[in-house]
Amino acid sequence: MQGLVKRWGRVALLMLGVFPVSGQVACADVTLPNIFGDHMVLQRDQKNRVWGKADAGEEVTVKFDSQTHATKAGDDGKWMVTLEPLSVGPARTLTVQGKNKIEFTDVLVGEVWVCAGQSNMQWSVNSSNDQDLEKLAANFPNIRLISVPQVGTQEPQWNFNGKWTTCTPETVGGFSAVGYFFGRQLHQTLGVPVGLINNAWGGSAAEAWVRRDILAADEKYSPLLARWSEQEAGFEKNLAAWKVAAEKAKAEGKNPPPSPEGAMRGNHRPANIYNGVLKPTIGYGIRGAIWYQGESNASRAYQYRDLFPLMIKSWRDEWAQGDFPFYWVQLADFKAEVKDPVESDWAELREAQTMTMDRLPNTGEAVIIDIGEGKDIHPKNKQDVAKRLARLALVDTYKVAGIANRSPRYKSMEAKDNKIVLTFEHVTGGWRPFDVAEPRGFAIAGEDKKWVWAKAAILPDGKLEVSAEGVAKPVAVRYAWSDNPVCNMFSGAGLPLTPFRTDDWPGVTINNK
Questions:
Q1: DSSP letters for 397-457
Q2: Which of 37, 87, 177, 393 is deepest in the core (most CB within 10 A)?
Q3: For position 34, what pLDDT does the model report?
């Protein structure tokens, strides 16, 4: 099977037209991957690795500021040095000397963040609210941007086609909107350079961001990998059949069916994005990562409870920078509103995202249940999404005082007669229901597990009291539990209440593997 995976990884590269880029060709010259380049930002206040290739045994010297580090390339031609912690200062030059000399100019030291996920992270400034005004004001020479192309493969890549650019009205339009607005808030608040690495891929599944051997080591993912193994084993047969069908469709003046090649190089195949997009950047000095993904895994929300933390941990392990900050966006409201309380795979995915904060340290969730659009899976308001992520980073990572950063979150419940009293944490500034005074979005159920809409009241101590006519002995409460819930609870700081349920009754995705 391993040989088959490697084989089709090479096929995928050929089908994509992916050939070795700068730094991948075996030659006498010292080379570095394109994550290093003019205008890059190096992470301040920590050690930074610099690596590349050269002839076996070749002496390589790296100079930056007052530091000089020398090493020799190994038998495989690879070399690496580690810069001692750096401080913010003027633009400098990083020099790499072997048999040839490379100079990277206009190098800054500041804060570096990875911006990853699927289409809502990939969504550009050009397609967001007020894109014309945003671009006019994007004169930030100390914000630097680099995007990694979408290459899906089973073969780990050493390099990618991309380069660092300075943030200007001309360069910012195609960049991740959430990434840019997040980075801009950090830059303006902290007063330091910011580097943003955009590697988001629209429609991607979480398993595509994880090494295949890590998935294979856990039997939870055996059904998922078995489906892909079957598809990979039948690829040649399916491709031959597709060619016949495509020729027939062409002769009949019809559109051909989708090619099986797409899945092999696509953004759902386990490890494809890890190898083709993430791998070439792993090891570059970063402060942390922001993430907006989950739509593609909603049908397997229970599985996501384990898969998402596994992905984060695997990144941290391989980056070898400890438990670096990892902040994500919870799924927004989307699709049609419903008349009565229902089960929801999107609600279960949101729950899985929230649970991850209890599984891993140094994590946080930006709740945006108020920002989505029922008709569009890509809401254009990326500014507020980025601000909520920035709140997490500013308080938890940079220790900025005096601002709220966490959405209110359910803590505990107590049944009292025909009511349930709920306790919450992070209710900064008390409760502020939006639009109307009474809380909306609550459902309640008795032991029969039949959900009905409930009334809620804010008690003097900040707890919420929930009840409904006809439910004499309630046992559970849910809030904002649907694809596109009607809900209105916010803290006084303007952060929405995190969707939740007090029950653990089996959901609609519990058996989906």
A1: IT---S---S--EEEEEEEETTEEEEEEE--TT-B--SSSSS---EEEE-TT--EEE-EEE
A2: 177
A3: 98
For residue 164 the two structure tokens come to: 């660092």
Tell me how far apart the alpha carbons of residues 201 and 290 are, in angstroms, rounded to a whole number: 14
Q: Tens of pLDDT along 69-97?
A: 999 999 999 999 999 999 999 999 999 99
Nearest to 177 by CA among 110, 122, 98, 221: 122
* 253-to-41, 246, 247, 260, 472 alpha-carbon distances in Å: 52, 10, 10, 21, 65
Residue 43: CB partners within 8 Å, gap ≥ 6? 86, 109, 110, 111, 112, 195, 285, 286, 287
pLDDT digits (tens, 9 = 90+) for 42-64: 999 999 999 999 999 999 999 99
Q: State pLDDT tens for residues 238-269.
A: 999 999 999 999 999 999 999 999 999 999 99
Instruction: State the greatest distance between any 2 C-alpha atoms of the chain, in Å, as a whole number.
Output: 83
Per-residue pLDDT at 16 exceeds 70: no
Look up the pTM and report it: 0.93
User: Per the structure block, which two tokens stand in for 387?
Assistant: 């601000």
- Give the model confidence (pLDDT) of 421-431 as tens digits: 999 999 999 99
Whole-number Å distance between alpha carbons of 267 and 376: 21
DSSP state string for 233-284: HTHHHHHHHHHHHHHHHHHTT-PPPPPTHHHHTSSSSTTHHIIIIIGGGTTS
Give the neighbor-by-neighbor strand order of the sheet with 442-445: 451-453, 442-445, 476-479, 500-501
Contact criterion met (CB below 8 Å) for 178 and 290 = yes
**Angle at which helices 235-251 and 222-233 cross, to 10°:** 60
Three-class SS state of 170: coil
Residues making up the chain, counted from first to last: 513
As a whole number of angstroms, the distance between CA 338 and CA 457 comes to 23
Indicate whether 13 pLDDT > 60: no
pLDDT at residue 5 in the model: 41
Percent of the chain as helix, strand, coil, to the nearest 5? 30, 25, 45
> 187 near 142, Cβ under 8 Å?
yes
Closest CA to 196 of 272, 114, 93, 298: 114
State the Cα–Cα distance between residues 440 and 456, nearest whole angstrom. 7
Segment (H or E) for 4? helix 2-16
DSSP run (H or E) holding 478 = strand 476-479
The string of DSSP codes covering 121-165 is: HH-BGGGSTTHHHHHHT--EEEEEEEE------SSPPS--S---E
